[in-house]
Design a protein that fits this description.
CATH superfamily: Amino acid/polyamine transporter I
Structural class: mainly alpha
Order of helices and strands: HEEHHHHEEHHHHHHHHHHHHHH
Largest sheet: 2 strands, antiparallel
Radius of gyration: 23 Å
Number of strands: 4
CATH class: Mainly Alpha
Distance between the termini: 32 Å
Helix content: over 70%
Length: 578
């Protein structure tokens, strides 16, 4: 080990290098040597000159604590308001599912039809800000201070970035979205009473199979490429900056110190954290509901198990139980092992489809799809002067709200594993690497389904949304094995999302503490499952999407304010280094 890795104050504060297993384990758990004071946030001090923010706030000073056997450690306003609101919503939805279904459907339609322009403009702001920071001198600033070193190897970091952000969505939409956009593009536009009624992106590609394929894949990649990862980046980057460079807790309210100052420890901060909890838990419930829909459909497809509400509820209860067990076991024995299993199974499924499907077509399509995505990125991003209302409102606006509702959860995880990277490295990695993997996934699975359809196999096109993946795999060798792997992937994504999400929600609701009692994580994990059940029974997929959009709306405003705070925080770092 070279001496340049050892700090000037000797071995005492040496934290290891990215290859050290203990260093990586400590970074995931939030613990570093030397250990912090009892009850304090386990965040390492900045290394080198940074703009430290001096504040009298102590982590947990507003918390209420209980003693065994009823041990708890919760932030009074944030936990109480969030927990009571989520519990009340869940109970009401379970009691009146039939009456609430039209309410959910109307809510989603109203928000996406009237505010699609707002979601799309915000998404464009996030992308442009990220690209601007990459090119600006601010990109040289290092998270953790100018002398900080990365906690993880480059390969491990890339793997965690991708695993954090997508999950169940890739399984649910990997086949269904490309084939859906291809079909609607090929069918062209239809107009009734002067209004377009089709779902084709942009102006469609009526009768042109090649153009429809290109447009369908470009529209899919648009929803899974730069924009969602920019949304995650504008949460993760300021979280990392204000925690690792400025000495504030790793919570959402810390981002807004440049705006509110010490008032973030009062009600302005409480509101931000409450909105973060709402956005995360409803975003997770949407994903869990999608996972239950697809896993139940797959079990029916493979084993003939009834595809009904009872099966979905039982499945959610079982998987929530597994997720709760994982929470009790902790990060090392629970989340980490399940994530490793997930990544291996996803890689096996991807390689199988590439090798057993139209291999050369997938490889060439990967580069071709990148080209069509680049060509259509600007028109697809434009919120004004378009006529494709169904596509723009029904697909894009929902996606942007969904990604935004996931952003506190994903952003906090990305921030935790990104210490030691420069802003430029961070943004390039967070935007480009996962986007390329998403393009490959969509090209392999969705492109194979489109090729099957063009070859005359109508099974994928005719299948229900949640069955399209299994229909595509059914036309390849080893159907039973690959379909079973697909179901397992959905379930494990389900578990890891619920597990990791409960950790993040609990951190926010505990006032930034990372070592709160396990019972609190069990509480949030259980409520995620109950909320998913309530929404499924109270309106199915439409209800899940409605709540993702509803919670994503106010949090979009929060993120736009966070962008300004991020720039101001980075400029303060640059002045400190000058």
């Amino acid at each position: 080990m070279s001496n340049d890795r050892i700090p000037k104050d000797g071995r005492k504060n040496y934290k290891g290098h990215p290859e050290d297993e203990k260093r990586q384990r400590d970074a995931l758990s939030g613990r570093f040597e030397p250990q912090p004071d009892a009850g304090g946030e386990a965040i390492p001090l900045p290394e080198g000159p940074t703009e430290i923010i001096e504040t009298d706030y102590q982590i947990g000073q507003h918390n209420i604590e209980g003693v065994k056997p009823f041990a708890f450690d919760v932030h009074n306003p944030v936990f109480m308001i969030s927990a009571l609101a989520v519990a009340l919503f869940t109970i009401v939805t379970l009691l009146f599912p039939t009456q609430l279904e039209p309410v959910f459907t109307g809510l989603r339609a109203s928000l996406t039809s009237n505010l699609d322009w707002f979601f799309m403009l915000a998404g464009n702001v996030f992308v442009l800000l990220c690209l601007g920071l990459v090119l600006s001198p601010l990109g040289k600033i290092r998270l953790g201070g100018p002398e900080a070193t990365p906690d993880f190897t480059l390969t491990g970091w890339f793997a965690m970035l991708f695993a954090a952000g997508m999950g169940i969505g890739l399984m649910f939409y990997g086949v269904s979205e490309p084939i859906s956009h291809f079909q609607t593009s090929l069918a062209g536009t239809t107009v009734e009473n002067g209004i377009r009624t089709d779902w084709a992106p942009l102006n469609g590609a009526a009768g042109d199979e090649l153009a429809a394929r290109h447009l369908g894949m470009a529209a899919t990649i648009f929803h899974w490429g730069l924009h969602p990862w920019a949304i995650y980046a504008v949460v993760a980057l300021p979280l990392a900056l204000f925690a690792y460079n400025k000495g504030l807790p790793l919570t959402m309210r810390s981002i807004f110190y440049p705006i509110f100052g010490d008032r973030i420890w009062g009600w302005p901060g409480h509101v931000i954290d409450i909105l973060s909890v709402f956005a995360t838990i409803f975003g997770l419930a949407t994903s869990l509901g999608l996972g239950a829909e697809q896993a139940t459909a797959g079990l029916n497809y493979l084993f003939g198990i009834a595809n009904n509400s009872t099966t979905k509820v039982v499945l959610i209860l079982m998987i929530t139980g597994i997720a709760t067990t994982s929470v009790v076991l902790g990060v090392e024995k629970g989340v980490k092992r399940l994530s490793e299993i997930n990544m291996v199974l996803a890689l096996v499924l991807l390689l199988f489809v590439i090798l057993m499907g139209p291999t050369m077509e997938i490889i060439s399509g990967f580069f071709g799809n990148l080209g069509t995505y680049a060509r259509d990125l600007v028109p697809l991003s434009n919120p004004f002067g378009r006529t494709d209302d169904n596509f723009r409102q029904g697909w894009t606006a929902f996606y942007w709200a969904w990604w935004i509702s996931w952003s506190p959860f994903v952003g906090m995880f990305i921030a935790r594993v990104s210490r030691g990277r420069t802003v430029r490295q961070f943004l390039i990695a967070v935007l480009i690497v996962p986007s390329l993997i998403s393009v490959l996934w969509m090209t392999a699975l969705g492109g194979t389904a489109i090729s099957m359809t063009l070859a005359g196999f109508e099974g994928v096109a005719d299948a229900a949304l949640e069955l399209k993946l299994f229909s595509m795999l059914g036309n390849l060798p080893l159907t039973a094995i690959t379909s079973f792997i697909g179901i397992v992937l959905v379930i494990v994504f389900f578990v890891t999302s619920s597990d990791s999400g409960s950790l993040v929600i609990d951190t926010i609701a505990a006032g930034g503490k990372v070592d709160a009692p396990v019972a609190q994580r069990i509480f949030w994990c259980s409520f995620e499952g109950l909320l998913a059940i309530a929404l499924l029974l109270g309106g199915g997929l439409g209800a899940l999407q409605a709540m993702a959009v509803s919670t994503g709306l106010p949090f979009t405003i929060v993120l736009l304010g966070g962008c300004w705070a991020l720039v101001k925080g980075l400029m303060g770092e640059r002045r400190e280094l000058a």
